[in-house]
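Shipment paperwork, digital attachment
Item: protein structure file
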Amino acid sequence: MKQASENTIGADSTVPYHSKPERIQELRRLLLNSIEKCTPCDCILLSGGVDTSILAEAAFSVYNNKKKNDASDSNDDGNKSSSRLRPMTGAITVLCTDQATDEFYATQIAARTGMVQEIVKITLDSVLEELEFCIKVLETFDPMELRNGIVIARGLSVAKSLGYKTVMTGDGADELFAGYSFLHDMSAERLQAYSDKLTKVMRFSGVRLAQALGMELVQPFLDPELVAFSQQCTREEKINYHDHLKEREWQDRLSGRQLHGKFILREAFENEAFSAWRKKEPIEVGSGTTVLPKLFQESMAPEDLKTEQDKILAEEGIKIRDVEHLKYFKVFKKVFGDDMNQYPEKLQKDGRDPCPGCGFNLTTPDQTFCVICGQWPARVLPPPEEVAKAGNASENIKI
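Attachment content:
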């Protein structure tokens, strides 16, 4: 099934859009099944966004209903009901500044579910403590990857210190259900092609960070049946307008008609999830790590940065973009050293397919973003829908 329509309901339409009830119920069934397979789990990295709000609150909704059924069965047969394990015990929320937007939502969700919440407030010094670990594990000096990775690493480290061994995350929902704002202006055809590509290449730093800490990460949104369902969603089901109720403005922090990604996912769990219609915010916004570029920038004079940029470009062939990039690169060099022969397999610089920003090899022929230095575009390719057409044409020829 491909896109049935490429139009969202317009912002000025008098008729609000709703996905078909049978589609909503199928999505609920698939995600609840996936959550059940992943629980009981020790804790969740709770940002308070729609993804973790759904996972936490849907899990407890099912748990509470089953507890009621157990009690009812116990009364009917006169036997004491067996105790059920709670789906999760703890919630870890990582914040970098007092302006971080996650705290309000995460605290509400923890209270609603009865989870023991640990709020971790990190400073620039503690960020730098995590940096070396993140760079070593993720093999990168890309600022965006590291800003996100630092938050996840600190959350996992705290979880481990509290004795938790399995941790749930909301990874995958944005990729599967068009949560990113840059997808929202795409036509149905382009969105389908881009989503298909994202599904193939998506990767999450939490997996490697958890493994390095001897922990297990569970990701309910990445269940194969749920991934397959997302690939069959229409553009309307993924991206559409929602009318925010006046009485929920304090909760949604939005008013009037607003465009949302992950539309059908929000619809499916709007009765359980406190953050169902919260505005999508990147992890670095919610946690507050967006302050890092400014803090780093203020720590170095422009002329000193220029001197360092010129020196590294001449000696290493690497284009340093700003002070934050420079700081991460210096830690990268501290971790991996100067002898390229001792570098991990991923960090090869033999000229076969070099990134124009750092010279390290790009890993695949269709890679447009360098996962080592963060260069974008790292190469220019035809749009995903053109690649998809070419692929379909070649398949037809083979048949």
